[in-house]
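Worked example

This section walks through a single chain of length 158. The input is the sequence exactly as stored; nothing has been trimmed or padded.
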Amino acid sequence: MASGPERFLQATAHLPITPQRMPDSTHTAAEAAAAVGVEVGAIVKSLVFVVVHDDDRREPVLALVCGGNRADLDALAAVLGGRIEKADATTVKAATGYSIGGVPPLGHPAPVRTVIDRDLLRFDTVWSAAGSAYDVFPASPQQLVAWTGGELADIGTR
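Given that input, the structure is written out below as C-alpha cells.
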C-alpha cells in the first residue's frame, strides 16, 4: 500500500500540484507556517467533522480553515444543516484515507463534502498538507475551491 504522500501524488497527478517535503513537522498550523516560512493564516487546516442530520444520518465533512482561525461550529452547522461533531481518528482516516496532521484538502478515496473558510481568500498562496505531517503543497485559494468543489463560507473565527 502506498504511503500518504505517494497516495496523494497518485490521486492528484492530473493537477498542477508540486508537494514539498519539509525537514520539520507541519502537523499543526504553527509548525507548518514555521517550516514553510509564511504567516500562520496562509496555512490550510483540513479538519474533518461529522454532520448529524435531523434523520440521524451521519456525514463526514471537510472544513478547510484558515490557519489563524478556529472552526466556528455554529457557522458550519448553519451551512451544513445539521449538528456538528468532531470526527475521531478512525472517522478521519475512513473518510479521507489520511491520518490527522496530514489530511490534504483533496485526493480522497471518495468525494467528501467540503466547506472552505472565506478568510483564506486574503492570501495569494496558501499551503495545505499533502498526505503526511511533513509534506505540503502551495496553491491559490481559488484553485482549492475549484479542485475540491468546496463551498465558500464564513466558518472561521479568530
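What to look for: The CA atoms of residues 89 and 100 lie 7 Å apart.
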